[in-house]
């Protein structure tokens, strides 16, 4: 009987030691998981804070673009600049009066300064971005200039600006010329002043 009792007692001690070891091991595992969770939580918090800073900076930049697009984009306040957040574009508008003589598609010499400035900004701030040079006219039909129609005149004017920018260093694969004729007026063609606004060349930079 005494021997049996000793055997049972010894066996019980062994079982308790095994349980103790299991609990100790489980405790260590749980402690490790807790530390891992805390570390991951800290990393998530840091990432969240960094993301919020990025969002705040982007919001600030967008507000600056809306309030002073010329200055914010680098083109300056001497040219007409518009920022379209939804389309992801910056549009520099040049009136035809400073680019071309009436009915002509050859650039005026006085225009070179403005185009050189625009090209330098494209090179320094928007290298690799796609660019459209878009020509527009008013709705008056072509009579004396020799062009077939307003589509042809607008396309040739866009090509003149495009060729000049390429000559100054804008890569050919980055830029294209588009002629819209009178199809996209910014104001109704109901007065001489409005028609002058519609005669323009737009340099559209896709910043996305």
Describe, in plain words, how this protein is organized in 3D:
The protein is an alpha+beta fold. The chain folds into two domains: 1-67; 69-206, 60s Ribosomal Protein L30, Chain: A. It contains six helices and five strands. The protein has a five-stranded mixed beta sheet. Strand 1 (80-84) and strand 2 (89-95) form a beta hairpin. The mean pLDDT is 85.
Sequence-ordered SSE layout with sheet pairings:
Blueprint: H1 2-67, H2 69-73, E1 80-84, E2 89-95, H3 96-99, H4 112-125, E3 130-136, H5 150-168, E4 175-179, H6 192-198, E5 200-206
Could you list some keywords that capture this structure?
60s Ribosomal Protein L30, Chain: A, alpha+beta, 2 domains, rod-shaped, single chain
- CATH architecture heading of the largest domain: 2-Layer Sandwich
- How do the SSEs run, as a string of H and E? HHEEHHEHEHE
Strand content: 5-15%
CATH class of the largest domain: Alpha Beta
Distance between the termini: 89 Å
Fourth-tier CATH superfamily name of the largest domain: OmpA-like domain
Q: State the helicity in percent bands.
A: 55-70%
Could you write a compact summary of the structure shown?
This protein has 208 residues and is α+β, with helices and mostly antiparallel strands.
